[in-house]
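<goal> How does this chain fold?
<sample>
Here is the protein in question

***
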Amino acid sequence: MTTHQATRTVVRYRLHAGFTVDSGLRWPGEILDEDSGLDLDGDGLLIRIGRRVLPIPLSTVAGAEVTDGCLSRERGVRLSPGHGLLVRTTTLPGVRIRCHEPVPGPFGEQRHPTVTVTVGEPALVADVLTRIAGAHREAA
């Protein structure tokens, strides 16, 4: 008689996507340093803006999509029309991260249903976050 044992699959991942900055535009080092950007690993998602850190638990991530580029020349951290947090460092497309529950921002008590960041390889980052969000839904 043959018996089959259930196997457990373990997936490990680590991703860093730095902020994309328009050529010729310099940011002070205290705002954007070499650690700034989006960091993803098994412990969660961190968005680093200089010394400020915005942690987002993976269980909170509902999905992500690539945003359109922006014609506005405004850069920095601000609110989007839907009260989401927008970290814009370029006019190029970024990644909008949708959350099941609003997350706190880096500058106060206001909570945000989305966080949009202009990082390198936005399609790859959005795909990875969407897949991880789907895996968390299936495991729940």
About this structure: Strands lie at 14-17, 37-41, 44-49, 52-56, 61-66, 76-79, 85-88, 95-104, 111-117. The mean pLDDT is 82. Residues 14-139 form a domain with the PH-domain like fold (CATH 2.30.29). Residues 25 and 90 are 9 Å apart (CA to CA).
